[in-house]
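Input C-alpha cells:
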C-alpha cells in the first residue's frame, strides 16, 4: 500500500490565488465557445437595436439574464473566497496535514479532518505554483507545489487522473 504524508502551512495570498484560479477554471470548463458566440450575438443585437427602434421588453429581458448570470457568478466567487478565508482565519496554526493513500486523501487541521475517496474528485487544475483538486462542483483542495515532495504530487496526480472528469495543465 502506497502512502505519502506531508504538512502545508497556508497563507492568505495562497488562498486568494487558489480561489481565483479555481473560478477561472470553472469559467473555462462550463462556458464553451457556443455560449460566448450566443452572448456576442445577443449583445450585438442589443447594440444594433438600440440605434434604431426603442428597446422592447424582450431585449430588456435578455439584458436582465446576462446581468443576473454575471452577478451570480461573481457572488459565488466572493462567497467562496470569504468562506475559504474564514476557515483560514479560524485555524490557530494554519498547518494542514495530508495523508495520501491508495484509496483516499485525508486532510486534517486543528479544525477537524476529512477523508475523501479518490473517486470523489471531479477535476484537477495543475498550475505551476499549486495543484488544485476539485471535489464536486464547488469545493476544492489546494496543494502548493513548493511545499510537497515531487513523488507525492505525482501520486496524487495519478490517483485523481484515474477517477477525474477534467484535468487542465498549466499554460
Amino acid at each position: 500500500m502506497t502512502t505519502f504524508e506531508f504538512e502545508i502551512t497556508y497563507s492568505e495570498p495562497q488562498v486568494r490565488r487558489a480561489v481565483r484560479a479555481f473560478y477561472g477554471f470553472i469559467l473555462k470548463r462550463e462556458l464553451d465557445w457556443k455560449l460566448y458566440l450566443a452572448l456576442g450575438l445577443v449583445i450585438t443585437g442589443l447594440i444594433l437595436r438600440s440605434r434604431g427602434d426603442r428597446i422592447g421588453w424582450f431585449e430588456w429581458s435578455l439584458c436582465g439574464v446576462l446581468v443576473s448570470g454575471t452577478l451570480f457568478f461573481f457572488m459565488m466567487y466572493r462567497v467562496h473566497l470569504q468562506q475559504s478565508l474564514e476557515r483560514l482565519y479560524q485555524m490557530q496554526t494554519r498547518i494542514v496535514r495530508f495523508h495520501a493513500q491508495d484509496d483516499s486523501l485525508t486532510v486534517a487541521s486543528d479544525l477537524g479532518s476529512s477523508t475523501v475517496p479518490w473517486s470523489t474528485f471531479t477535476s484537477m487544475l495543475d498550475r505551476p505554483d499549486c495543484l488544485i483538486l476539485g471535489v464536486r462542483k464547488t469545493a476544492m483542495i489546494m496543494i502548493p507545489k513548493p511545499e510537497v515532495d515531487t513523488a507525492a504530487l505525482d501520486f496524487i496526480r495519478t490517483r485523481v487522473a484515474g477517477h477525474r472528469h477534467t484535468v487542465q495543465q498549466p499554460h
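DSSP finds four helices and eight strands in the chain. The chain has one domain: 3-168.
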